[in-house]
């Protein structure tokens, strides 16, 4: 009894063991979002579960029309008018690290359906994966975009970029986990690459279907297979069988068995099979071809042998399905990676003997290099700035500031730092945008800024002293704002500064001496039209504008001076009275007294003239500096 139990346990253990090795032992992660929806829902016929709308940065929920029967049967969508910014995203968290198929269905807002279809760009984590092409609403497999990506950070950002042709409108987003090794095509495959699905065709008899409808393994990612009954040359025939197909649903790609139960076969009169499609030029493509020998007339290896050519180049020589798959009714998957310069991709199966060709399915992916990102420190800085400056929503500023390179944030200039493989913000130009906020300290996290131009807004408050730590700054233009307070001493540390415009604000106080010193180094500074700046040539000398302590000091000083003056006046008056009295006494005869008064007057005048000439000397120094300054491009009106 005990022994039997042990045996059973061992069998169960071994079964579990082999199962866990043949396929991942759990259901794949799947998240499906019904855009614009206010409630979770299930759709027929497969009871697919859709989450209500989440993670979006803006946009408007609306009722939509499905552009094609293959779109999921959802009623709502989310669209992004230009007033919400040129780029909007879905930032989705809670996605475990893994390999995913991300699919986005497009929709059309019911009220907009009369006008033309929107054209826009789509990016995943900053990498541009798809630009919608005119006519997408007429092609079943163009009503969605799909890419295979690795996600490592528990989140993914899917963004939609306006191109000026209508408002992006999104029906659904699906994030479906696939096998870690899915679509391994060679050494280039991996984290640095995304595969965009360009075409997925099931050849022969049948219907267009999703993986779910095929009864395919969920680890296959619920692929959509567009059915094609002829390549169009009139030289091919569909064929199908019910026979079981061996080696079909294997990892890592888990192709549905029925994919191999139909095929296109070339005719004896025209033995070549040729499929041609339009593609974007100058890209690399990964091409996956599916075969199974399901033709009764071919029964052994060597009976059907053909070359596979792409755009005229042989990429697979002497393909013998039975030999390579090991048997009849057995799946064979071959893949090849090729660069395509032109706008067409032609796949030709060219029989080498007197046989003909056969094919079950074709998949074509565009290989896309993953974009570098912007340094996260600088992204955070810009996000803080966005809030602090109260950036209008028409700016968008969603997703990554620098990528996709075709769609950087308005106002941001980006530079790729190749040594760290990250983008940095090189310049920020938001002049004359009606901004009403303040400058946060965090602006100093933009440590690679060379230019900052915020001229002509209504930015109030103080200039943050942290600005002085951005030592790369060459141009700083904060002119024509409502900035107040004094210029921080730290700005003196900006050793690269060439242009500094602080004119047209309400700044007051002493201009940092270090800045004044900088004036001699071919720099151009403008401090005019402020409440009261002082301390450098061309501006008033400081004194009137002092700290509270100094003001108290001056006040006390003034009181003492006043008292002193009063005392002096009293003394003088008394003395004058004395003199008058003496004069009255001396009116009779005392000439020497008058001479003595005269002498003291002379001494006083001499002293005054001395101090005056000293002052004049100092003033002369100033105007010297000013003359020197005026020789260079120093502007101090
Ligand atoms: C969408 O359609 C439903 C009725 O089907 C209607 O009640 C709802 O108000 C519509 N929503 C919008 C945003 O137009
Ligand atoms: C994910 O995090 C790693 C390191 O933590 C970083 O190198 C990578 O750029 C991040 N990826 C994304 C898409 O944010
Ligand atoms: C795809 O082709 C490459 C190179 O020929 C090969 O190394 C790889 O194993 C193939 N992938 C699959 C899944 O067959
Ligand atoms: C195509 O692949 C080659 C070799 O891997 C690479 O040098 C080239 O940059 C790629 N082209 C594109 C457009 O990605
Ligand atoms: C395939 O062909 C090779 C020689 O071309 C032969 O050695 C091998 O046995 C064949 N395999 C099968 C399964 O027929
Ligand atoms: C790139 O970044 C590194 C490290 O932050 C820095 O030392 C280097 O100067 C930067 N290169 C450029 C060209 O900015
Ligand atoms: C800032 O932008 C304004 C408007 O384009 C321009 O006139 C000004 O010269 C810029 N400032 C600097 C320092 O380049
Ligand atoms: C600057 O202006 C703000 C109001 O915008 C005011 O609260 C603050 O006290 C002012 N600071 C100085 C130093 O005048
Ligand atoms: C400095 O700013 C004032 C206005 O604030 C302007 O009139 C003057 O032309 C500017 N000086 C230079 C040299 O740009």
From TrEMBL:
GO terms for cellular component: membrane. The keyword Mitochondrion does not apply. Gene3D superfamilies: Galactose-binding lectin (2.60.120.430), Ribonuclease Inhibitor (3.80.10.10). Residues 1-20 form the signal peptide. Residues 33-366 form the Malectin-like domain. InterPro entries: Leu-rich_rpt (IPR001611), LRR_dom_sf (IPR032675), Malectin-like_Carb-bd_dom (IPR024788). The chain crosses the membrane at residues 552-573. Pfam families: LRR_8, Malectin_like. The keyword Translocase does not apply. Keywords: Membrane, Signal, Transmembrane, Transmembrane helix. It is a single-pass membrane protein. It comes from the Eukaryota. Residues 603-631 are annotated as: Disordered. It is found in: Membrane. Residues 607-624 have a biased composition (Basic residues). PANTHER family: OS07G0107800 PROTEIN-RELATED, RECEPTOR-LIKE PROTEIN 4. This is Malectin-like domain-containing protein. It comes from Acacia crassicarpa (northern wattle).
């Amino acid at each position: 009894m005990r022994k039997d139990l042990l045996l059973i346990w061992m069998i169960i253990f071994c079964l579990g063991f082999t199962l866990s090795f043949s396929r991942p032992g759990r259901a794949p992660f799947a998240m499906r979002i019904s855009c614009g929806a206010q409630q979770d829902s299930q759709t027929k016929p497969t009871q697919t579960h859709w989450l209500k709308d989440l993670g979006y940065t803006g946009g408007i929920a609306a009722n939509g029309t499905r552009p094609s029967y293959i779109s999921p049967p959802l009623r709502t969508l989310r669209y992004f008018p230009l007033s919400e910014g040129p780029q909007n995203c879905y930032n989705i968290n809670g996605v475990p690290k893994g390999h995913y198929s991300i699919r986005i269905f497009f929709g059309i807002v019911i009220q907009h359906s009369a006008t033309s279809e929107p054209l826009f760009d789509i990016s995943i984590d900053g990498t541009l994966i798809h630009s919608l092409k005119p006519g997408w609403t007429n092609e079943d497999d163009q009503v969605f975009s799909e890419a295979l990506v690795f996600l490592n950070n528990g989140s993914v950002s899917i963004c939609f970029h306006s191109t000026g042709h209508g408002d992006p409108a999104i029906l659904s987003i699906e994030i479906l986990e696939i096998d870690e090794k899915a679509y391994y095509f060679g050494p280039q495959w991996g984290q640095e690459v995304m595969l965009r699905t360009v075409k997925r065709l099931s050849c022969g008899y049948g219907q267009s279907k999703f993986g779910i409808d095929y009864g395919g393994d969920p680890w296959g990612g619920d692929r959509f297979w567009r059915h094609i009954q002829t390549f169009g040359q009139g030289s091919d025939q569909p064929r199908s069988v019910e026979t079981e197909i061996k080696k079909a649903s294997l990892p890592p790609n888990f192709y549905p068995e029925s994919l191999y139960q139909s095929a296109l076969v070339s005719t004896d009169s025209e033995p070549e099979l040729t499929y041609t499609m339009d593609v974007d030029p100058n890209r690399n493509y990964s091409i996956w071809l599916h075969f199974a020998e399901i033709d009764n007339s071919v029964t052994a290896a060597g009976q059907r042998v053909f070359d596979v050519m792409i755009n005229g180049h042989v990429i697979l020589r002497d393909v013998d399905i039975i030999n390579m798959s090991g048997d009849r009714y057995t799946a064979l998957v071959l893949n090849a990676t090729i660069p395509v310069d032109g706008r067409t991709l032609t796949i030709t199966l060219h029989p080498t003997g007197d046989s003909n060709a056969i094919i079950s399915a074709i998949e074509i992916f565009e290989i896309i290099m993953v974009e570098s990102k912007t340094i996260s420190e600088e992204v955070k800085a810009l996000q803080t700035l966005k809030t602090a400056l109260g950036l209008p929503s028409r700016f968008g500023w969603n997703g990554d500031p620098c990528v996709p390179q075709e769609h950087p944030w308005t106002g941001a200039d980006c530079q790729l730092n190749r040594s760290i493989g990250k983008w940095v913000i090189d310049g920020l130009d938001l002049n004359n945008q009606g901004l009403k906020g303040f400058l946060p300290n965090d602006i100093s996290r933009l440590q690679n800024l060379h230019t900052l131009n915020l001229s002509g807004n209504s930015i109030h408050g103080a200039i943050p002293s942290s600005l002085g730590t951005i030592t790369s700054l060459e141009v700083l233009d904060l002119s024509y704002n409502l900035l107040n307070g004094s210029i921080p001493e730290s700005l003196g540390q900006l050793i690269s500064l060439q242009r500094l415009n602080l004119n047209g604000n309400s700044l007051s106080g002493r201009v940092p001496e270090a800045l004044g010193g900088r004036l001699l180094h071919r720099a151009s500074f403008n401090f005019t039209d402020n409440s009261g700046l002082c301390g450098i040539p061309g501006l008033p000398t400081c004194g009137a504008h002092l700290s509270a302590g100094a003001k108290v000091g001056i006040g006390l000083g003034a009181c003492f001076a006043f008292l002193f003056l009063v005392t002096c006046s009293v003394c003088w008056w008394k003395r004058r009275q004395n003199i008058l009295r003496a004069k009255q006494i001396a009116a009779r005869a005392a000439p020497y007294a008058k001479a003595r008064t005269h002498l003291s007057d002379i001494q006083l005048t001499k002293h005054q003239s001395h101090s005056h000439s000293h002052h004049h000397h100092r003033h002369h120094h100033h105007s010297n500096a000013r003359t020197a300054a005026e020789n260079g491009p120093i502007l101090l009106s």
